[in-house]
Amino acid sequence: MYILGLQTGAGIETRFNRDGFSNHDSAAVLLKDGEIIAAIEEERLSRVKHCNFFPRRAIEFCLQQANICLSDVDYIALNYSEYDAHSMASLGVLEDAKTKVASAHEFAASEFMQFFAQDVKDKIVFCSHHLAHVWSATPLSGFDESLVVVLDGNGPSGDGKMLSGLVGVHKNSEFNTLAEIPAKKSLGHFYIRSIRLVGYNRFDEYKVMGLAPYGDPNRFAKEFQQLYRLKDQGDYDVHHNPGVAMWQQLYSLPEFSSPRRKGEEFTQAHKDFAASLQATLEKLILHIVENYQQSSGMKYLCLAGGVAHNCTANGKIVSSKMFDEIFVQPAAHDAGGALGAALYAHNLKSKQFQTKRLEHLFYGTEIPSNEVIEDKLKDWSSLISYKKVSPVTEHAAQLIADGSIIAWVQGRSEFGPRALGSRSILADPRPASNRDKINKMVKKREGYRPFAPSVLEEYSQEYFEIEQFSNSLQFMNLIVSVKEEYKEKLGAITHVDGTARIQTVNKNSNSRYWELISKFNELSGVPILLNTSFNNNVEPIVDSVEDAIASYLTTDLDILIVGDYVIERKPELTNNIANFQIRLRESYKLSKGFKQTNQGFETFKSIEFASSGFFAKQTHTISNELFEILAADNRYSIAHLADQLRIELTSELLLEILNLWELRVIQIMPK
């Protein structure tokens, strides 16, 4: 029995999406008889971070992995309820009175008819938003029974209410709800609305978690205490707009006379604000979890929902020793709802519930054979040099030991937001300078941001304070302390507070990555690598060989390794791209406009993001010359188009092209 699970929006990348950020992180998961065959987020294929597009590419990928057609799928499970589908269908009538009211099943099936020309309404299974989060965790925890806590921004309950969380007890295939947390008490929104005061917004929550250890959590504790109230039985209240409320309290301080803007320097007050906010969130989470642990008596805990990505808070739960073990769904955000909906449908239709531990997350795109990789590399040979090496793990370990920062692309890509050794940037974990170099020159992001250590599982308790062993450790879901004697030695992965977001690596789940770390251990005496996701600051984690080449060429990484091939860039990248094709990414379009100057109105040319501005910068102003090139026939090289259009390929124009490629607004491709 094949079941396709979806987290889906109704948008497509070539038109404006009125849903804003709703239904973000669209994804598809395919089960066969309850086993995960494939799982991927649409962003990995569309190359638009957090996108809420209908996941047509992700669906196609899943079907290809099983070598089946959509008609072979028995059920399609959706991460929303029948009530919610009917509500969304009714909105169309309100906007256009001529529109026929569709049933919930017809509405849910409409995108499949548009993209796949198949009527699937009889295959639809609905699963309400928070219940999908529950089911994403419980069958994969390995626990026969557990307390389940789901916390996020918000989502529809399935009966007209908006919720921000769900608490219950899971025993075998049954889930009994203990509490529904209404949207007005959303901890996800409490955090998001607070971080706006320090220059961050939706999808930036993890950045503030990383900033918090630089601050004093006591400095603004009193002010934050005005924004929440703990109540009996795990209940609480929070302010509906904490950012504004905090600004009103802190307005007299010079640092908060106006909110910090993105790109401005962080003051100590901003860091203290982040620390106080993080401490407040932890206090609220622990209040919920402790109460329901005591009332339920459960000794195991499952966590899901976007708030469960707060690894620091997860670590505090572990340190409390309330539970014998906890499991955090690695794809705790909404993309994980696709997995949860599929597992819910499998249990509903097969009546065969089983719980077993999630062993890995390598369910995405697999890199091709070495022969195919070499063919792809040949197309880029004017920009890169490459060679095949064996064993590649030994060669890579030596490069890292010699000080190189490498990109490592192997096997199938990971499902979820973490790079776990298949699409990773890797470096020596010892020199603190590696952290600064990657932040500044590779990721091009804030210098305070920490990096995770990948440690061989058999050595993990030697280097880190692991009070409770959990398979969640292999998914970078928990913050633990680095042992005192190694904090200085492991300067690149030890955060300012002496902690690290650990990933344990075992030979069974990722043998090639385990072998690489083992080889590095033989050379350095350290069974650990610095690991961060392979992408720059505007794109999702790379997925394909082509993504890897583009990201490598537009960052300052030293070496790229794909399969058994070691790749280096050639000099004169800017001039050499003239021999490649150029085109807009599918989610962008050319635009002309007018702006007022002292001399009157003048036209300007730009590239616009066609969908919601929540997912990418909306407008990029470009030169007239580049506009003409992009409007021309993209089957030809940049140099050929410039010659035909009588445009001089100046260094400024080539740098403009390179910059937009780095921003992933355009594609540069071999002819």
TrEMBL record:
GO terms for MF:
catalytic activity
List the coiled-coil residues: none
- Say which species the protein is native to: Aliikangiella marina
**What region holds the Carbamoyltransferase C-terminal domain?**
397-569
Enumerate the InterPro entries for this protein.
ATPase_NBD, Carbam_trans_C, Carbam_trans_C_sf, Carbtransf_dom, NodU/CmcH_Carbamoyltrnsfr
Pfam families, alphabetized: Carbam_trans_C (PF16861), Carbam_trans_N (PF02543)
Q: Which family does it belong to?
A: Belongs to the NodU/CmcH family.
Q: By what name is this protein known?
A: Nodulation protein
Which positions fall inside the Carbamoyltransferase domain?
22-343
